[in-house]
Amino acid sequence: MCLLSYFPAGVMPDADALHNGAIFNDDGHGYAIVDPIGNRIIVDRGMVARDMIKSFVETRRRFPDGPALFHSRLATDGWVNLLNTHPFPVGGDPRTVLAHNGIMPLRPAKHDPRSDTRIVAEEFIPKAFGTLRRRRARLAFERWIQPWNKVVILTVDHRFRDHAFILNEEGGIWDDGAWYSNDMYQGWSPSKYRYAWDDGDLAVTSARALESRAAVLGPTDALFDQARRGKPAQRCWNCQNPADYTLGECPTCGMCFDCGEKPDRCLCYVPSRRLDRQG
Question: Is the pTM for the entire model greater than 0.85?
Fold first, then answer.
């Protein structure tokens, strides 16, 4: 799952929201803050959520004038260690870093200890997309990672037009000036995520998605309602039915918008996964 949080210049982090995201994404935590005056990116990583959140909040207070990000990892590929903790420099250049939520469409080799995101940042992007400074390259990279992957890029490379970029921004949530890659920053509760049985397989469905499913009467009505509220019409890339990416999953077919898996394979919202992986 992971939780990737982005804070524009001047926006302070909500420590409680970061703690909520770290509860079930506790395989490493890291942050990056742009210092536009010093023309540098301040980066730190650690394995203890409490310590890293405290460090991020304190450092952010000292450097509020540039964009920042915070990432809590739930490991899918690669070893659980500091070397696989986000953010990562792109192509080894410390002037540009990225953090990611999702599963990259690239799998590490059998004995490669690196995570998929680390491999993409270190090797794949420089070879396939260059420095990402051109908008065309970022759009191509965004298409390659597919809609359920979300990436934040911070840079002090003068060749970029801005210090920060969010790829697949529409898949996340803006709340009180900050952007979150999913709603885990709100905290977990039984009323928020509940289980539903489907053909013998345990699937996890957000309460909001269930409510949305009951409310959707048909594609035309749903699209009309979105247009009336001034929201762009969105469709699930699996079943093509109306869907709100911020709900976390498709209300029709149940595809997870964070990992791209069907309900019977998605473990993004299963709290017991943390227990299984630690036991």
Answer: no
